[in-house]
Amino acid sequence: PAGLPNTGPVAPPADNGIDNTTGLARELHSDGLQALQFFLDRRTNPLVSTSALLRLAELVLTLNSFQFNDQFFEQISGVAMGTKMGPSYACLFMGHLEHLVWNSYDGPLPSVYHRYIDDCIGITDMLEADLSRFINFINVFNPAIRFTSHISTSCVNFLDITITLSTITTSVYYKPTDTHSFLLYTSSHPQACRDSLPFSQLLYLRRLCSEDDDVLDGAHEMLDFFRKHLYPEKVLVSAMHRVQKITLTNQHNTANSDRVKLILTFH
Fold first, then answer.
1. Alpha-carbon Rg for the chain in angstroms
2. Structural domain boundaries of the chain?
3. For the whole model, what pTM was predicted?
């Protein structure tokens, strides 16, 4: 639901004073607004009415325009990039879709199913034919949603990890589109910021990999990414030494537990 938007030139107002494209945008977002209403109606303490929140959401979703080559365009589907409600909207849309699928499908369902925004993972003991039927069903359930699937009895990629099923171990996974475009060391950013990047990425790697050998292999690969971005060897060696002292059991410990933490939302 938060994918690439469809856009079109803004049409002149219709005779009734209602913009044609805005009306189309409302129609295309009807499923999403229904999903919002589904969950808003289940609140136990609705300080703001559902109708008011739905109207505000509709304004955010339908009143997005931009100028390109001296033409004005209005986004008629999808969510504008950077909109604060985008991730929550996507989660609620998918949650409502799952609710509808689970209550309408007449065949076997996955034994285990989890989702992060729009990335899903599941475990099943159903026959492959039944699994294919289930995937085909969800792929035609809503025309706005298309699922790509990978079925395996050995390992599966989910988000940024590869899960090996025989031993239930994890290692880092890079999507084919990942260009590893880290900040150049010649950037004008503060030196402390640049020097901290290799360690932060190696720490991220340490947390993703459950096996030390995978950490070591991934770290050497990661350091090569930074070398291509002109990071000094002494910075990389220092980061590597710091990470090698961290284990899965102590990785969340901090040297100074009394420090004041300032946590800001990403969006």
1. 24
2. 6-86, 88-152, 181-267
3. 0.73
**CA 43: distance to chain centroid?**
25
What sign has the CA pseudo-torsion 46, 48, 52, 54? Answer: negative
Per-residue pLDDT of 186-244, as tens digits, reads: 999 999 999 999 999 999 999 999 998 999 999 999 999 999 999 999 999 999 999 88
Tokens 């998918």, located at residue:
94
**Alpha-carbon span 261 to 188, nearest angstrom:** 26
Q: What is the C-alpha to C-alpha distance for residues 68 and 166, in angstroms, rounded to an integer? A: 52
Contacts of 221 (CB under 8 A, 6+ apart): none
Tokens of 219: 């770290």
3-state secondary structure the chain: CCCCCEEEECCCCCCCCCCHHHHHHHHHCHHHHHHHHHHHCCCCCCCCCHHHHHHHHHHHHHCCEEEECCEEEEEEECCCCCCCCHHHHHHHHHHHHHHHHHHHCCCCCCCEEEEECCEEEEECCCCHHHHHHHHHHHHCCCCCCCCCCCCCCCEEEECCEEEECCCCEEEECCCCCCCCCCCCCCCCCCHHHHHHHHHHHHHHHHHHCCCHHHHHHHHHHHHHHHHCCCCCHHHHHHHHHHHHCCCCCCCCCCCCCCCCCCCCCCC
